[in-house]
Amino acid sequence: MKILIIEDEPSMQEVLKQALEQERYRVESAEDFETAMDKILAYEYDCILLDIMLPGGSGLGVLQELKKQGKSDSVIILSAKDSVDDKIEGLNLGADDYLTKPFHIAELQARIKSVLRRKIFGGQQIVTLNNVQINYEERSVSVADVPLPLNRKEFDILTYFAANKNRLINKASLAEHVWGDYIDQADDFDFIYSQIKNLRKKLKKCRAGIEIQAVYGLGYKLVLS
């Protein structure tokens, strides 16, 4: 899962980044309004941690742009301003949650998991697709109750497909979602082919009731088999 931290205080940004990476999230950051706007317009995120007071503009302006663009990124506002009016405005603009600084990292992590469950699997921790069970919080997969070992990228790919089952996913969207803005440095999509090839082999070998189908020239989609 991919998280964007929009926070101008370097020490806070680093603490959040380290804590979230320990939870195996892929984390990107923006330290001012302009950088934040560039990132939300160019990329999709599973969750955005948003400070209201930013150099160059307000975090509420970022929320307004997300709403204007029709983006579905989940947003948790992190603010030192404990104002009811700010909370109401932020939530009315589409924020999913509001956490006042200072806060405990454990509480933030719990809230991130909560909004991601709502966004990805309709509030469920475990999603079942035929004989396949995906436990999002434990980052585990089983087929007919037998654990299926997956590496980090394979799990992220499978989760992304599961959240978009029966929908065509093009290679660019998949690469950007799983690898983030580092994809700009790639010359081709060979690394995607390799990860998906390995994932498809593992699913087939254990007779999983799902299949990742290739749609020639367009991308892939996950279907029940």
From TrEMBL:
Pfam families this protein is in? Answer: Response_reg, Trans_reg_C
User: Which SMART domains does the annotation name?
Assistant: REC, Trans_reg_C
GO biological process assignments: regulation of DNA-templated transcription
Q: What's in the GO CC field?
A: cytosol; protein-DNA complex
Which residue numbers delimit the DNA-binding region?
124-224
Q: Write down the superkingdom of origin.
A: Bacteria
Asked whether the UniProt record includes Translocase among its keywords, one would answer no
4-aspartylphosphate sites (modified residues): D51
**Keywords noted in UniProt:** DNA-binding, Phosphoprotein, Transcription, Transcription regulation, Two-component regulatory system
* GO molecular function annotation: phosphorelay response regulator activity; transcription cis-regulatory region binding
Residues forming the OmpR/PhoB-type domain are: 124-224
Give the Response regulatory domain ranges.
2-116
Q: Does the keyword Transcription apply?
A: yes
Name the chain's protein.
Response regulator transcription factor
